[in-house]
Write a structure and sequence with these properties.
The chain has eleven helices and eight strands. With about 280 residues, the protein is α/β, with parallel strands linked by helices. It has an eight-stranded mixed beta sheet, sandwiched between helices. Strand 6 and strand 7 form a beta hairpin. The termini are far apart. It binds nicotinamide-adenine-dinucleotide.
């Protein structure tokens, strides 16, 4: 099945990125969110992302305009009822995701693939909310979507081979490299990455070094492109906390418990880049 039209729910960091790379690859996109202001923010992020490519000479202005013209927006899954692929990129909450999956699988064609971009929830568990769960799959992009080459394609207990093949083909169409992963907490990358971020937060809380020095240490000492605390700010501290909490619960091991400093930042609304402050301060302009 070739994806000609994508419906993406959530115009946040991930949803807007998925919409952008899909539109760049020639796919018609409908991007929805719960309010006009969120849709507008997502579109502004896409315009900025494509604008940067034009500025760098990696895209022609007419290609940018064509990509933007492929993106329609809306406030309801009904706005993309004829899509071949639905990807939900709403916040990491079973309540929100189950509602979206129920509504989307009730209105999309039976052949349409239904996917989630969840970072940490079980695909097999979420499949309970999907009519015909053999067409349900995890399509896990990384942040920022336009820059990150990997997609984890996650097979739930009911996912069919055809759905896996369609998801892998879609990932390749939008310029990514897919890896096939079993449905297991954190999949591959986050299971390894987030305990390391949590350890960096612990080192900061214990005064082992400043945030800057911890990040410089990991950049220069482990050859990371960015430090773990800066990465947590990029991911979003709320998302980081949710991923660790899910790893702790689902793997049944307290070693994954989100550090209390992380919880403090989230409670104070310091969510990282998207809120203007986290372990670092950001200019939101
Ligand atoms: N941030 C990351 O680094 C990252 C990486 C990979 C996967 N993910 C996963 O992607 C998903 C989204 O994360 P994000 O970072 O883009 O979050 P975000 O907070 O930036 O964006 C989420 C968007 O979803 C919208 N939303 C809420 N309820 C909705 C609904 N019912 N219908 C449509 N839209 C709705 C919100 O208004 C918001 O604009 C999460 O499941 C997260 O775990 C995140």
């Amino acid at each position: 099945m070739k994806v000609r039209k994508l419906l993406v729910a959530g115009a946040g960091q991930m949803g807007a990125g998925i919409a952008q790379v899909s539109a760049q690859a020639g796919i018609e996109v409908v991007m929805i969110d719960v309010a006009d202001e969120f849709v507008a923010r997502g579109m502004a992020a896409i315009q900025k992302g494509l604008g940067r490519l034009v500025d760098k000479g990696r895209m022609q202005p007419d290609e940018r305009d064509a990509a933007l013209a492929r993106i329609a927006t809306g406030l309801s899954v009904e706005d993309g009822a004829d899509a071949d692929l639905f990807i939900e990129a709403a916040p990491e909450s079973v309540e929100l995701k189950s509602d979206l999956l129920r509504r989307a699988s009730a209105i999309l064609r039976r052949e349409a693939v239904i996917a989630t971009n969840t970072s940490s929830l079980s695909i097999t568990m979420l499949a309970e909310y999907v009519e015909a769960p053999e067409r349900f799959v995890g399509i896990h992009f990384f942040n920022p979507v336009p820059a990150m080459a990997l997609v984890e394609v996650v097979r739930g207990a009911a996912t069919s081979d055809a759905t896996m093949a369609a998801a892998r083909a879609f990932a390749e169409t939008v310029g990514k490299t897919p890896i096939t992963v079993k449905d297991s907490p954190g999949f591959v990358v986050n299971r390894i990455l987030f305990p390391m971020i949590n350890e960096a937060v612990a080192a900061l809380a214990e005064g082992v070094a400043s945030a800057d020095d911890i990040d410089t240490g990991m950049r220069l000492g482990a050859n990371f492109p960015m430090g773990p605390l800066a990465l947590a700010d990029l991911v979003g501290l709320d998302t980081t906390q949710a991923i660790l909490a899910t790893l702790e619960r689902d793997l049944g091991d307290p070693k994954y418990r989100p550090h209390s400093l992380l919880a403090e930042h989230v409670a104070a609304g310091r969510l990282g880049r998207k809120s203007g402050a986290g372990f670092y301060k950001y200019d939101r302009g």
